[in-house]
């Protein structure tokens, strides 16, 4: 049986001095300074994390290139798989990010704008390098294609861009299937609705995606503790659980989360 992965994530922006810095927020807003990306990467590498995710959170919205110099410095400190996302729009961006030290690239806006980017990236660098990130938002209207019940109401999930600030009209479940067919090696499911809330992952959307594809799915947004990781593994069958603030602020260690899961017979790697 494959082990479930625990993945810390840092959201990186440029501070007022032009330096890369980690920020943490709620629902992709109200960002607060959290720390230095290189120092945090080094600490997570030593903490038992299975992988590490670096997201340049405003690159797509502002049209900036990913901070490759910081990526390179982070890559020097981590010896576990490193995924980097933010502002990746063409095949050359994928190449440069991998050259800077990333093992995988996470793509959201660029792939939605031009789905062929997934195919090009998978053919050039291998599917294992291509992670399609989905910023899902719940919609309670009649414009979706795949519905589930949430608190008795029919809900579909819309792909959004620019940190959830803009809708696309694209159904998350349809997009997940297309991304898989185009060669994505992994799907990274964020939820605008649960991001930073610490009230648990968005199990309905994670489960819906997991049931629609065979590609590994990373659950993200909303983890408040080990019990939330357990729930998304057991209820949605996610392959990995990503978390940020519970680790950043020392509320739980990665070892504590893994021990909790191991005690409940969820396979993890120590």
Description:
The protein has 270 residues and is an alpha/beta fold. It has one domain: Aldolase class I (TIM Barrel), CATH 3.20.20. It contains eleven helices and 13 strands. The chain has helices at residues 37-45, 59-62, 68-75, 91-99, 109-113, 116-125, 172-182, 203-212, 226-236, 245-248, 254-263; strands at residues 5-14, 20-26, 29-35, 52-56, 82-85, 104-107, 130-139, 148-150, 153-161, 166-171, 186-191, 217-219, 240-243. The protein has an eight-stranded parallel barrel with strand order 1-4-5-6-7-11-12-13, surrounded by seven helices. Helix 1 (37-45) packs parallel to helix 3 (68-75) and helix 7 runs parallel beside helix 8 (203-212). The mean pLDDT is 93.
| Mean of residue pLDDT values | 93
Terminal Cα span: 15 Å
CATH superfamily: Aldolase class I
* Coarse shape: globular
Largest sheet, spatial ordering of strands: 1-4-5-6-7-11-12-13
Q: According to CATH, what is the topology?
A: TIM Barrel
Instruction: Describe the largest sheet.
Output: 8 strands, parallel, barrel
Portion of residues in beta strands equals 25-35%
Query: What count of domains describes the coordinates?
Result: 1
